[in-house]
Amino acid sequence: MKNRLIVALDTDDGEEIDWLSATLAETVRWFKMGFQAFSALGVEAFPWFKQNGHKVFVDLKFHDIPNTVARDVGMMTKHGANMINMHAAGGLEMMQTARNSADDAAYKADIPRPILLGVTILTSIDETGFQRNFGSERQLTKQVVYLAQLAQEAGLDGVVASPLEIEPIRKACGDRFLIVTPGIRPEWAETGDQRRITTPAEAINRGADYIVVGRPILEADDPLEAAGMILDEMRGA
User: Fold this and answer.
1) Radius of gyration for the alpha carbons in the chain, expressed in angstroms and rounded
2) pLDDT tens-digit map of 35-72
């Protein structure tokens, strides 16, 4: 299960990131760098993570014109990102050009191609908020499935989606399509601003390939113990 837990380094404190990654080095394999961590570490972090046997999920949620996203995804690939995401709402062409750029950069650098993910609907949004803010004719779950199918058509490897949408995505996109789920909260952790959430065990039982956990680990008195408790929940699923 250590290969399926992604710890979100959601801080711009370089010393804290060093301490957290060192503390969790033997417990988890994946670390996620969002904008906060990336602003502190930059691309210089990739060789360090690789040297220590870790994989990096670059969570910058690219969303721009196809040429810009292709350039950015290609750059992240060249530097050694193992997983990269972009907003599926950017459209089919944007995701296709990103896939082509990542594949080309990986080929030229003779490195494995990264996992590319489309972000569906953020886990901080519930059905009421979705209808109020987006004015979609679809319900939230149907919109998530639609975006997942669009990402699959574009050649992406999977999506970032709430654990509550795993089953309909599986039905629409099949078992080989990766699903990475944030919105994970153990029963002992506060929910914060998350709305569509489950426990680690429930997410695994529903069929998540990876789960992303940030604050329940980062804000714990003992992050190593917290990560261990989450892994135990996952193993018991």
Assistant:
1) 17
2) 999 988 888 888 888 888 899 999 999 999 999 999 99
**Which residues sit opposite 160 in a β-bridge?**
119, 180
**Catalytic residue selected from 2, 50, 61, 142:** 61
Active site (annotated) includes residue 108: no
Round to whole Å and give the CA distance between 91 and 114: 20
Of 115-119, 155-159, 208-212, 219-223, the poorest mean pLDDT is in 219-223
The residue to which tokens 């995804």 are assigned: 73
Q: Which three-class secondary structure string do you get for 156-203?
A: CCEEECCHHHHHHHHHHHCCCCEEEECCECCCCCCCCCCCCCECHHHH
Q: What is the pLDDT of residue 173?
A: 97
- Alpha carbon distance 177, 92 (integer Å): 17
